[in-house]
Amino acid sequence: MPDERLLNLWKRNLGAVPDSVWTMDQLETLILADNGLTAVSERIGRLRRLRTLDLGHNQLTHVPESLGELFNLSDFLYLHDNRLTTLPASLGNLQKLRYLNISENAFPAFPEVICRMAGLAELRLTDNALSVLPDCIAQLTRLRELHLRNNRLTSLPDSIGKLMELRQLDLRGNPLESLPVSIASLPRLEKLDLRWVNSLPSYAWFASLEARGCLVYH
To answer: What's the CA gap between 106 and 128, in Å, rounded?
Structure first.
């Protein structure tokens, strides 16, 4: 008997989502990755039981406002490898979401709506065009992993030192010129990855992080 809570349409060359999908209101997991999608209907907001949504590896230039109506989306939201430059403000309603991946898009700036997604434990923004990380990042008090590899960051805000649950900070491949000393006071930091960063001095506080067991790659 098929599971009405799961629909896996990965890599089916759909081009567009079948209308029948939007009537499947029992779904908790919907996988639409790698289908050449250029748009997703606002009707996706009807799938109020969704906990996981995968829209990765498509050709989306925007996502619908109605994603913000998926209040039970708690496990994963994959939007990576698309053509996104902004996120709708409605995504700030996703207070239960723990994992967000918007890597491999074309974001010129950090979408500040993410700062309202208070439940996030893992945030992936690799391979974009971010030059600034906003102070509001400090609002993500449950964040454990922050992945910022291959952006255009030259510095980070002092407020990153308020992420008391942060375990991993990946800054590889950024043209960093300075880092705030507040990183040294992150009590649970286990890994600071600065590989492929050639423009940064070696700070004395790197040694203090390493002395307490944090892996510092630089």
So the answer is: 5
Rounded Cα distance between 182 and 215, Å, is 17
Q: For 186, what's the count of Cα atoms within 13 Å in the CB-facing half-sphere?
A: 34
- CA 205 to chain CA mean position, Å: 28
pLDDT tens digits for 68-123?
Answer: 999 999 999 999 999 999 999 999 999 999 999 999 999 999 999 999 999 999 99
> Which residues face 29 on adjacent strands?
6, 52
Say how far apart CA 94 and CA 117 lie, in whole Å: 6
- For 160, 183, 205, the CA distances from 208, given in Å and listed in that order, are 18, 11, 5
Residue with tokens 């030192």: 161
- Rounded CA separation 213/192 (Å): 11
**Tokens matching residue 21:** 């999908």
Nearest to 146 by CA among 132, 128, 127, 163: 163
